[in-house]
Amino acid sequence: MRKSIATVCLSGTLEEKLTAIAAAGFDGVEIFENDLLASPLSPERVRDRTAELDLTIDLFQPFRDVEAVPEDLLARTLRRAEKKFAVMERLGADLMLVCSSVSPAALDDDALAAEQLRLLAERAAAHGIRIAYEALAWGRHVNTYDHAWRIVRQADHPALGTCLDSFHILSRGSGPKGIEEIPGEKIFFLQLADAPLMAMDVLQWSRHYRCFPGQGGLDVAGLLEHVLRTGYDGPLSLEVFNDVFRQGDTARTAVDALRSLIALEEAAGRTDLPAPVVPTGFAFAELASTGLELPALLTELGFARTGRHHSKPVELWEQGDARIVLNSGLDATTGHPEPALAAIGLETPDPAASAGRARALLAPVLPRHRAVADAPLDAVAAPDSTELFFCRTEHPDHPSWTGDFRACVISPRAASAAPAGITHIDHVALTQPRYHFDEASLFYRAVLGLRPHESLELADPYGLLRSRAVSGADGSVRLALNVAQIRPGSGPSGSLWQHIALHSRDIVATARRLRERGAPLLPIPDNYYDDLEARHELDPGLHRTLRELGLLYDQDDSGTFLHLYTATVGRVFFEIVQRIDGYQGYGAANAPVRLAAQHARTR
Ligand code: MG
Ligand code: MG
Fold this sequence. Notes:
Mg(2+) binds at residues 427, 499, 575. It comes from Streptomyces iranensis. Keywords: Dioxygenase, Lyase, Metal-binding, Oxidoreductase, Pyruvate. The structure is a single chain. Helix content is 32%, strand content 25%. It has 18 helices and 24 strands. The protein has an eight-stranded parallel beta barrel with strand order 1-2-3-4-5-6-7-8, surrounded by six helices. Helix 4 packs parallel to helix 5, helix 5 packs across helix 6 (145-155) and helix 10 packs across helix 14 (437-448). The longest helix is centred in the N-terminal third of the chain and has 21 residues, at 71-91. The radius of gyration is 28 Å and the shape is elongated. The chain starts with a strand and ends with a helix. It binds magnesium ion (2 copies). The site of one magnesium ion (MG) has 4 residues, from loops.
């Protein structure tokens, strides 16, 4: 289906928006009148520019406060309309959005509304223009789609139809099934937006919190299915008002927007994208490593250096099934001036299919030979620029990235450094770009088929940490996506911390071992343990052990969670976790204590 977007969705000037919309791959645009009013470009120039960009102008909007007004106001409305029809002719736009009136002058009179809309449609038709009448959720007398449709039907003019807007319909809790009673050819336009579920004034909710389909809590795909059953064959068009998107990078928001429509079409059963290939585990985490701090920390954590790349300054460190790749060939020129997480290897049963899916959903594909290994690896860039490699480690049907590492002779000293009970990488926490948090959860859901969990806001001493986990159904791949909204300068790289969580089969033993070896662990204040005792009826022996070893504790409906953190090296720290009895979370309740301890150490 054709895909369109309202210019109001994006940041920037009209020219910047049109360029980004075309570059992302949209077919058309809705020109939001304010963008035109503020632009130095004449309507003719906008028409030519959109044509150059191979975009159609699908809608001009909004025209307000038309219907059911007293006679004296009607003349003024029609005069205003004629002026706008003239602008539309210069633009080459032939569909005008009229939203239901919010004016105190509007009368509660459907017959009058129909009569006046019919008159407007007649005037429009004389210019080759059609009118799409939309019910605003906060319209004065008309605020539901079925009411708007009744008026359109009553007006009965070929140049008058209705515009459906998923936000206005779903925000009011209107059942979308009734859409199927509208003939498809009378649905002149379809605007799509999602929103997080919030209890607030609907106008404020609409103006500030709309997001792209799949990023909020409304069933936009379900609504689309009803619309498509009517035979509607116009564009799918995004109309999103969002305070954060208005500040974000124009080009990447446009790509995020188009990705949401591609995923929505799939959810409504209208395309056959390659199916998601859900990753089955972490193959490795790759860290840009300068200096000796990370090798020292990995040694203290019980990792052994097991491989050296045959041609690059890259080392493989292993413990159990946890593999960490240290790359000292990445430096300031590649955006890694300090130790940082550069890439994640994801195990997938079909790396080429994973990459094909990612490409279809507009993920930036990386050159195959950037990989740590020389074995060709399919890779894409995640929204925070972390590189995601699709791997099939040591499987006979696929070249393994591990084949490019030469086994290290493990020194007797290293061999005596017994492993610390680490079994595998449990999760990886990535800091997202400030204005692209919603993009990230849609990316991981659509591209990798991971399931987004609830979005949390956690207290940081200098602001807030927004956090949302995504995971595979069996929990073998878990990512925590974070964005720190904190006072600038409140900790070096404070807003950019990343971490790798390693699972231990016996975290108490691991913690004792780390303490004996003097590993740099994050100190947890005594007050935390006093509160823990009050909140949970823990076995006194366990409580003493937690306090003694600086372990954090959490529980959910199924099980319990013990964890601890190392000090931060560059942007990265490690977490050791033990999930007991099927605990599913990430210890979010303890994040404020952890963040305070980290800020205290870095100040
Ligand atoms: Mg709308
Ligand atoms: Mg964690």
